[in-house]
Amino acid sequence: MLRRSAPRTEITVERREGRSAYLFLLPWFAGLLLLTGGPILASLFLSFTDFDLLTTPSWVGLDNYARVMDDPHFGNAVRVTMIYVVASVPLSGGFALLVAVLLNRPMRGVGVYRAAYYLPSLLGGSVAVAILWRQIFGPDGLVNDLLSAFGIVGPSWISTPEYAIYTLVALHIWQFGSPMLIFLAGLKQIPAELYDAAAVDGAGKVRAFFQITLPMLSPIIFFNLVLQTVNAFKAFTPAFILSGGTGGPADSTLFYTLYLYQEGFGNFRMGYASALAWILLLMTAAFTALAFRSSRYWVHYAD
């Protein structure tokens, strides 16, 4: 049987619409090439050079990457960043899930509560909130005022190396609004019939949570885990503001991104900073790949 070919007028219209679509996409492609693709390739090239922002880059090969092995600040920056990621991501995700479960129940004014809990996510990355956080955990801040009411003399949290990093972890946990809304949307998609059937079988709320809620939410948990991990690796503003750009005290808040900034724009070692940036990319990709590989054992999909 011969297939009927499309009329010539239809083909002409499709081609015209295709050209129009590419025309509208042209600004996006230009931005991708000039603002994203170009700087990425330039950074890759500079990572193999000695470049101080003022003179012509000189090729040094893999020297910048080999240098990290003898750089004590690099190891400390990796350690501080890993502490921040490992501590803040699970705590923030767990707290967001807890609040989402509580807000999923019918109550009066639930929309106001959701907006109030989401608000810190809009403000948490700003310089103003980081400055406020520095005041809260200062020697005469709100935290020590609360402790003094119970007769406890609190330290200067941001000036003590043992506690400084955990003030930043607390700030990250405070920004739980975005994953909370994602969890809340996932909870809305779980069929109520599953909970009714579990109740008929005698399952309590705790068992239903672990047997129904968590497995059904596992794709959402996985999504938030990857997203929050990437954001934690990229954290910069809180550490910069709380430490005054130094990463102190005693490099206890020297995030990897802050050290990269210091090397590139403080010490004018842009070639080395570019190499640090690509190492950070590889570390983030490794964690993301590990999460995807482990997802086959605990993430459950409907199909």
Descriptive account of the structure:
- By secondary structure, the protein is mostly helical.
- It is built from 13 helices and two strands.
- It has a two-stranded antiparallel sheet.
- Helix 3 (72-103) runs parallel beside helix 7 (161-174), helix 3 (72-103) runs antiparallel to helix 10 and helix 12 (256-266) runs antiparallel to helix 13 (270-298).
- The mean pLDDT is 88.
Summarize, please.
It is built from 13 helices and two strands; from the N terminus they run αββαααααααααααα.
Strand content: under 5%
Kindly name the structural category. Answer: mainly alpha
Gyration radius, rounded: 25 Å
DSSP helix count? Answer: 13
| Overall 3D shape | globular
Helix proportion: over 70%
Summarize model confidence as the mean pLDDT.
88
Low-confidence runs: none
Tell me the total number of β-strands. 2
Straight-line distance between termini: 38 Å
Q: Any key phrases for this structure?
A:
303 residues; mainly alpha; two-stranded antiparallel ribbon; globular
Secondary structure topology:
Elements: H1 8-46, E1 49-50, E2 58-59, H2 63-67, H3 72-103, H4 110-123, H5 127-136, H6 142-148, H7 161-174, H8 177-188, H9 192-200, H10 205-233, H11 237-243, H12 256-266, H13 270-298
Antiparallel strand pairs: 1-2
Helix pairs in contact: 3-7, 3-8, 3-10, 3-12, 4-8, 5-11, 8-10, 10-13, 12-13
